[in-house]
């Protein structure tokens, strides 16, 4: 049934619509994702008033910095904690509230607004049509054509458990259901305005009680979570990565940018030769030899101290020990803050990647070890351009650029490019493009170092949150969840790698190593999915992701460990196999661990054949990158099924319990060292 057409749309600037440029200099603008820009423009063409609700630390004072990037929409700049209040003050009948957070959409519905899960759905509601959720199966290309033709916004686009048939779960206008000729189309009985869909992995093949199953696949069922519900409310636990959140993301249909090939395409020729240095980015043989085998004791010198602080054994900060890292616990924010502090103390320029979940803003914590790339500009050129940009969102008049270019010996280049004839906003955006001031890196932080041109990004990731949901009666807001293995073992490992690489390899690697501490993994990979979508929308030159999750449990002398490259999509699996081989070789180089168990499968079935089966598919943060088409691997302890010729699997019996307080420190350290050696190879 068609709804009454809307007359206004409020779009919250969140992980689904764009990103705020915010740092030490205050708010310096924002980036809207391509689908957001297109949807807002179309809405205005139909007579719908559009406004961006932008949460910023400065509140209304930031409005002037945001307007040049709004593409004609009104800007409502509000304090971080007042987003819902500001939206409801502008809301009412005939007003759509667009947000990626179901709690916020639920509150909007109560206030009489029309909740919409993604800006790309605005054309549907502007036409007075209802948004529905549907599951379609068929060939990959046919599903892709359907989504592009109908404007469907995908939540999930992968093969069905490794089979040849693909599954597209998407949000779309009701009329689009008639356009799936030749495809199997099943409308899902849920309200996508206020609910989110999640995959629930099945324990012992039984679906959860008192839950409506919307769709089934082997090993998992599709459920809906309402505005006030969390993953723990489903009431099923025990499997590794038991829940996967499905978030609307048009980028799932686009191929990824693998890495910047600017140098190879002669991109450096855009600049005058006198400000370019190509040879500085070439590593001498002496440096390459240093990458051979890092001393493990040096790599993990601070590992035990880090794991004690972040698992509640010793004080984390001035407030003392923490109790839990669960997103509903107050200590989660302390962990975010301390990670920023620890990374700054190492000499990094860390930042937050913010996302909304459950009505609250959470943060992934990110820090870069910039790569040298294939060429660099002479010292101070990029720094001077940044200083010009930081004076304000738009530099007026345009002639002010001419004096700056003269000082940088770029006056002739500036005149020959006819840049002085551009409007101020157009010129600024063009300069950002030319000097590669891109939204995948917070260049607006004055003291963050720039990577060289052509440097790709190698992610090293872990999740920072914890849970004890397998304990009966667990209250995530107050109860302990130390998570020493899951996943303090990985968190401390990434900190160790960051500390070692900064001390010994800063300025020596070709590509950027990006350290990522993802939040809300235990809620269904929410933080890593938000970040992977952010990188895809920004066309980031990602080389791949290497993630550490549960690397500390080892109850015997076998020292078995796993490297997971498997994915339902065979193309993502194939792209990940070279990275897995590098990790396998790195582990063998130390000789302290058993040979890596490398999982190459495209299915949850077929265990224990690791060429067919991979039990970690879509069950940890590496999956967020697989689903975007990037190479990714997961390193973990011996969790999944082993061959008959091997010892039995050794999963942690205290998984997701308050008793997760013990790890095998030497074992975990050795995995961290193997990961470090692999990253040096991948980035060097």
Q: Could you characterize what this model shows?
A:
- By secondary structure, the protein is an alpha/beta fold.
- It has 3 domains: 8-126, HAD superfamily/HAD-like (Rossmann fold, 3-Layer(aba) Sandwich), CATH 3.40.50; 131-253, no CATH class; 280-372 and 452-683, Aminopeptidase.
- Helix content is 29%, strand content 20%.
- The protein is built from 19 helices and 25 strands.
- The strands form 6 sheets. It has an 8-stranded mixed β-sheet with strand order 17-18-21-20-22-25-23-24, with helices on both faces. The chain has a 5-stranded parallel β-sheet with strand order 5-4-1-6-7.
- Helix 9 (303-310) packs across helix 15 (484-505) and helix 17 (570-590) crosses helix 19 (665-683).
- It is globular.
- The N and C termini lie far apart (57 Å).
- Residues 261-265 have low confidence and may be disordered.
Write the layout of secondary structure elements.
Blueprint: E1 8-12, E2 18-23, E3 26-32, H1 34-45, E4 49-55, H2 63-66, E5 74-78, H3 83-90, E6 95-98, H4 102-110, E7 114-116, H5 122-126, E8 131-138, H6 140-150, E9 153-159, E10 166-173, E11 184-188, E12 196-201, E13 215-217, E14 220-225, E15 243-246, E16 276-277, H7 285-290, H8 296-299, H9 303-310, H10 331-346, E17 351-357, E18 360-369, E19 376-377, H11 381-389, H12 399-407, H13 411-416, H14 424-434, E20 457-463, H15 484-505, E21 512-518, H16 526-537, E22 542-548, E23 561-564, H17 570-590, E24 597-599, H18 622-626, E25 632-637, H19 665-683
Helix pairs in contact: 9-15, 15-19, 17-19
